[in-house]
Automatic annotation (TrEMBL):
Serine aminopeptidase S33 domain boundaries: 88-192
Source organism, top-level taxon: Eukaryota
Full protein name: Serine aminopeptidase S33 domain-containing protein
One matching Pfam family: Hydrolase_4
């Protein structure tokens, strides 16, 4: 394991490459609703072209001109395909937006910053949605890097968001970086790890222009007074459970802990998806619109599928293979929506 591999594991993890066709059909049916996907682009705070998608009912089936929206923020080494597992929210009259952060998927850029710059891209996205996409109340569902981004944004924009789902947020990036160094540089004494971290920090400051030691979402959660679900898996190998618990203790608003089996990159269980659906319906005022019950698609309900995914994860070692597993699950979701064409 080279030194370059260590800093790249933080700001240049394997990029998920996919085709636009992998997002599924532009028109599709979700439950009894005919829906559509609109792709659009924005410019990041660093000047990169970033791509995004908005899933919503077709115009003739909107129950209101303005609908609630959930913004899904993917984790590191992932992309907007990850959001396809959340598209069931459409059955509750909640629209869904997904984005490829700079350095991820089909967006431009070479590096990620795990929330440092992404928080400003999220701010631009929220402004765009409110001005251009007929969006009312907004919730954010972030995973890992996406959860940290949501925390940083919400702490500075308390009136812009109605609800948060924070799946596997880290408290301090330094702790995550040290865990990665330990995993990739096994049998290295602790005092040498501190030296390695200092070198990694210096390299990232030069290459990506941010300080990983200053990236501490835990310092921002006290400022947030937005209802939140803080979720994590019991066998998370990247972010220790203590970090999640610290975030919950320090959180400034109403919060609920959701715990489930699995590892950091595992597919989330169907019951958690139901919980998230109910949570967003309640806090985004969807019930005021007489929304239909949230419908969980078969690939999330089938416990045999989930068990196979967990079993496969146990047989896979290495970040590149975790990326492959995530792509397989997301493409399965895309296939499901693609084979249910929109009624003409």
């Amino acid at each position: 394991m080279s030194y370059e591999d260590l800093w790249k594991a933080i700001i240049r993890p394997p990029r998920e490459n996919y085709r636009i066709l992998d997002l599924g059909d532009c028109e599709f049916q979700m439950g009894c609703k005919n829906c559509k996907r609109t792709d659009f682009t924005l410019t990041s705070v660093q000047g990169f072209r970033i791509v995004a998608s908005h899933y919503e009912p077709i115009d003739s089936e909107r129950i209101s001109p303005i609908l609630p929206c959930v913004i899904y923020l993917h984790g590191n080494s992932s992309c907007r395909l990850e959001a396809l597992n959340s598209i069931y929210l459409l059955t509750g009259n909640i629209t869904l937006v997904s984005i490829d952060f700079p350095g991820c998927g089909l967006s431009e850029g070479d590096y990620i910053s795990l929330g440092w710059y992404e928080q400003y891209d999220l701010a631009n996205l929220v402004d765009y949605l409110k001005e251009e996409r007929r969006v009312g109340s907004i919730g954010i569902w972030g995973r890992s890097m996406g959860a940290a981004t949501a925390i940083l944004y919400a702490s500075s924009n308390p009136k812009g968001i109605e609800a948060l789902v924070l799946d596997s947020p880290y408290a301090k990036l330094k702790g995550v970086a040290m865990n990665l160094a330990r995993a990739k540089a096994k049998y290295v004494p602790k005092f040498l790890l501190r030296i390695i971290f200092a070198l990694i920090r210096s390299s990232i400051m030069k290459i990506a222009n941010f300080d990983i030691k200053k990236l501490k979402p835990i310092k921002h959660v006290k400022k947030i007074n937005i209802p939140a679900i803080i979720a994590y898996s019991t066998n998370d190998e990247l972010v220790p459970c203590k970090q999640f618990e610290k975030i919950q203790v320090e959180y400034g608003g109403e919060s609920h802990i959701s715990i489930f089996r699995g590892e950091h990159n595992d597919m989330r269980p169907s019951e958690f998806c139901r919980e998230v659906g109910r949570f967003f319906c309640r806090h985004l005022k969807v019930l005021d619109l007489k929304a239909a019950p949230i419908l969980i698609p078969p690939h999330l309900v089938n416990e045999d599928v989930e068990e196979r995914a967990r079993t496969r994860e146990e047989l896979i070692i290495g970040q590149e293979h975790e990326q492959e597993r995530s792509m397989t699950v997301s493409k399965a979701a895309a296939d499901y929506y693609s084979i249910i064409p929109s009624k003409k």
